[in-house]
Amino acid sequence: MSLDASVAAELPVVEERTRAPIERQARIADIDVIRGAALFGVLMCNLAFCYRTPLFAHGGPRYDSGLEHWVSTFELVFLSDKAMTLFSMLFGAGLTIFYERASARSSGAMGLLARRLFFLSLFGFLHMFLLWNGDILVDYATAGLCALAFMKRRAWVLWVGIVVLTLFPVLGEFWPALRDAAYGMDSAKHYEDAIPIYGHGTYLDIVRYRCHEAVVYMWRAYIFYWPGTMRNMLVGMLVWRSGILRTPLAHARALRWTALIGIVVGLVYPVVRTIHYEIHHRSLFPPNSVWRPALSAISAPLLALGYAAGILLLLHRGGLGQRAFAALAPVGRMAFTNYLTQSMVFSTVFYGYGLGLIGQVGYTVPALMGISFYALQCVVSTYWLRHFRFGPFEWVWRCLTYGRWQPMRLATAPS
To answer: Which residue ranges run through the membrane (predicted)?
Structure first.
């Protein structure tokens, strides 16, 4: 499932009795860069596991050898869950930034933030039913609304919430009803039923079937993903409060340790799990083992934090790494628009009313598509932001949030 809703992108502040977006120079460019990098990982995972096969078929047929196998293995080990985890952490940080800056100018910041999340949920429902049911906007909006209850709390309260939400998947192994709700679906049968409809059906056929999936399957996905999304947002809130994102150079030592521990420790479980499967052709743990959900719930956020810390270090070290990652800032700044654009393009590429490639390709072709399209989005985003303040969908979202027309075009285009 996948976006970043870009709460921190072009973060607004509330003037006394007025509502206006923050000036461009006051933006936090590092967050845009990390978001842009995470968007690439999200796109690659969506193409591999959500577009090329029906969403709830869990990747469809396996490839046990050859290039397809190694591409899928790379995406599972290094990207799957990690990119989306990083997105939701940034979303939590963005909520806090929004609240702090709005509160500094006026009362009513919490209401404005709730209004913003409400309109995000509307975007999400339209996206889910009209384009692609891998939507994460509804998940982000609902988890974000709940996260508002932690906005004014002390750090230890957030830590308690993080621990409890991390334990949620483990509790499911002891609670059969919860486990059956989250996993109680026949993915093989769903694959057989969904492929003809998504691959050859008309747009209306696919919309009707997507509504069926929402009733039968989607609620299961929310039971499974929502606690993790909420947990990640609380982590993002704590990271912002720590000051690391505001003054990375002052926390260089902490960033180095975070990158080292996060990447090394975070990779242990997925790497060992993959090696075990390659050797024994079976899962590392039995189906109902508590270790499987526990290690998954810990490794993904550790690796996501390690990635973010590593990017920050490269950004402030200078040289080629800085230039390469800095080029991702425009994509991250327009992440909402880019996420929805990806859905528009690839639902057309893979569904029957377009090219009908669903179920017809392995992992390599979608990976090449993703790299090429992301590169195109880098170019388009850079050009767009030379002339406009926001991405198109960011602009619509802002107008709805503030209840009035927002300026779009830059007064003078930068040279």
So the answer is: 33-54, 83-100, 112-130, 136-151, 156-175, 223-242, 254-272, 292-315, 336-359, 365-385
What would the two tokens of residue 407 be?
């300026």
* In contact, 391 and 338? CB cutoff 8 Å: yes
Residue 20, helix vs strand vs coil:
strand
DSSP 284: S
pTM: 0.89
For the chain, give the number of residues. Answer: 415
pLDDT, block means (10 residues), the chain with 415 residues: 39 37 56 96 94 78 80 94 96 93 83 95 95 92 95 94 88 62 67 91 94 79 83 96 92 96 96 90 80 88 97 87 88 97 97 94 96 97 96 95 90 55
Cβ–Cβ under 8 Å, residues 63 and 363: yes
CB atoms inside a 10 Å sphere around CB 113: 23
Cα 354 to the center of its chain, rounded Å: 25
CA end-to-end span of the chain, whole Å?
A: 38
User: Residue 415, Cβ neighbours under 10 Å: how many?
Assistant: 4
Cα gap 124→140, rounded to integer Å: 9
Q: What is d(CA 100, CA 25) in angstroms, rounded to the nearest whole number?
A: 18
Domain-wise residue ranges, the chain: 12-402
Query: Please, where are the H alpha helices in 50-108?
Result: 66-78, 82-105
Give the DSSP per-residue string, 300-354. HHHHHHHHHHHHHHHHTT-HHHHHHHHTTHHHHHTHHHHHHHHHHHHHHHHSTTT
C-alpha–C-alpha distance, residues 365 and 348, integer Å: 16
Inter-residue contact 54 to 212 (CB < 8 Å)? no
